[in-house]
Amino acid sequence: IPYGYSSLSKRALAASCFNAHVCKALTFTNMGECNSMDEVFQGIAKIQYEGADSKNPLAFRYYNPDEIILGRKMRDYLKFAISYWHTLCAKGTDMFGDPTMNKSFGGQTNMQIAYRKVDACFELMDKLAVDYFCFHDRDIAPEGATLAESNANLAEIAEYIAKKQAETGKKCLWGTSNLFNNPRFMHGAGTAPNVDAFVFAAGQIKQNIDLCIKFGAAGIVFWGGREGYETLLNTDMGLELDNMARLLHMVKDYARAQGFKGDFYIEPKPKEPTKHQYDFDAATVISFLRKYDLMDDFKLNVEANHATLAGHTFQHELRVARDNGVFGSIDANQGDALLGWDTDQFPTNVYDATLCMYEVIKAGGFTDGGLNFDAKTRRGSFTEKDIFLAYIAGMDTFAYGLRAAQALIEDGRIDQFVAQRYASWNSELGQNIRAGKVSLEELSQLALAMGDVSTNISGSQEYLETVLNQVVFTL
Ligand code: XUL
Ligand code: CO
Question: Which ligand places an atom closest to the C-alpha of 222?
Fold first, then answer.
């Protein structure tokens, strides 16, 4: 993520208008007034739903925002969100190459660019019929030389964001703190070996909680940026995890005291940037939450690409979250089966989207959560139009997935098969075992009298995959 803003001087803020094209008022002293309302993505109109046969690249084929599905508008069921970092900050760099994209949107100084990113974000939400955004603190305003300076930058841009929210009704799905980019966090933040890094992280998080509350965010995410290790030879894992839990308790107590009613999320990821990330996968995070008494306040933000990096399917991670009552929100993206790192691609796999939405429907739909596109256009897809094409691809894939998941449930064959497969657990014996009324000795007597197990039936995986294919391809 190419943050890397240099520190910003206050003088720069008082600079006169940076670009007559971007800001028509030449006399302002407050950058907040430098909102020209000039269109950022000129030549691209609001994206319309045109139906499955449309060949217009700038149209939706499956996402029809106001169509009612499962008793809710599609836009309310899917709750799509723009990821501020990938969409408005990432510039196509990789470890071999310089930026291929210009994300300054007509701004010149770092603060001016920050204002224009807000304009671009709200214009994208409007044109794409996306109702939410997600952000890291360092996405929305440049980092200053001190925490106080960073906070002042954030506070200024936050005013502008809140104003835009009030004008448009657009909402914040969740916010998070970037505790991984700055070199001060080279050894971690909440799990740092040096108490000063922990203190700085706490200060940064406090400011971000205040921002989340200002934006009416439904959630606050913790992705363990550099919370992990490179080698156990230099690591006190027990102390680091205890400290992480201490920090999360402080966060929860502070946010609740300020009136935050939404969800806190942990976003599992097994590796990258560290060799081992503590929030490895859903099961590991749940064990952490249980150990440290955080289950009442924290849920999971499950990311598809992180699931596959952990050696699981996306559906598996969602099922683990649902079965443990901590299904919360989703980072909708996909990785590349041939690459072992987090490629954060826009999701286009309809099977994964269908099975994801199947889990979401079974979980009762989203409450505070939603589908955030933690995805970026490829380095070679460098134009502004590519941003629209990428979001359309992701949104249509999940709209298709929602329709297919609904069809799968209405079709009923898979649910009926599963019910039948476990039917013996509803027998008197099965129910007694489930109720804990039977001892090991009693089961041993039954087993001795049984002869052998004669009730196995086929698992019929191939048949069920055929049913899935039939439903997915005959919507
Ligand atoms: C990193 C990642 C983050 C989180 C938010 O892999 O997924 O973008 O979603 O910090
Ligand atoms: Co993510």
Answer: 1
